[in-house]
Design goal:
The chain is α+β, with helices and mostly antiparallel strands. It has four helices and eight strands; from the N terminus they run αβαββββαβββα. The chain has one domain: 2,3-Dihydroxybiphenyl 1,2-Dioxygenase, domain 1 (Roll). A hairpin with an 8-residue loop joins strand 6 (138-140) and strand 7 (149-151). The model has no long low-confidence stretch (mean pLDDT 93).
Length: 176
């Protein structure tokens, strides 16, 4: 069995330790690549690496979230938001949506966090990214269905994305 930092997660406490790691690591990547922290869009995702882990965590997610309140059948609204206090310079954050990702052999990462920039500022930011302002760790996500910028560090097993949305606002305007 291949070794991953947290997988296989076997209980709720292990999941929350992994989510805290994802939160801190994504913020670290944000600060390293942009020189500042951004607000979170409201969602945090854990990436499963084994089918039985995914089945188990889907059951956990069904307890932690309102299974009828989701965005895109991917992000499920938490019954109680997950709150991380400010720690070691990393700002506090509140996550209102949880994503449990199916195993993907091409993704060894622990999980991801999305950050938010207002629409007009996001367009300017994307333009800076496309002109090469950022030499490493920042690139436009190559997916036509998602308007995101990816932040990464090859030495950190977490992904971070920047978009022009706050998931709570998106969910309010879309039929869930």
């Amino acid at each position: 069995m291949k070794s991953f930092r947290f997988s296989p997660v076997k209980n709720k406490d292990e999941l929350f330790k992994a989510l805290e790691y994802i939160h801190h690591s994504a913020h670290k990547i944000c600060k390293q690549n942009l020189g500042k922290y951004l607000p979170v869009a409201g969602n945090i995702g854990f990436f499963c690496h084994f089918e039985d882990e995914f089945e188990f965590l889907t059951q956990v997610r069904e307890v932690l979230t309102d299974i009828n309140s989701h965005w895109n059948h991917k992000y499920f609204k938490l019954n109680t938001p997950i709150f991380f206090k400010a720690k070691n310079g990393i700002p506090k954050a509140i996550y209102t949506y949880l994503y449990i990702r199916k195993p993907d052999d091409n993704t060894p990462n622990v999980g991801d966090v999305d950050f938010y920039i207002e629409t007009n500022k996001f367009k300017t930011f994307k333009q800076l990214v496309s002109t090469g302002k950022f030499k490493t760790g920042v690139k436009i996500l190559d997916r036509p269905d998602l308007d995101l910028v990816r932040l990464y560090n090859p030495n950190i097993d977490v992904s971070a994305f920047i978009g022009s949305y706050d998931l709570e606002q998106v969910a309010k305007h879309k039929q869930l």
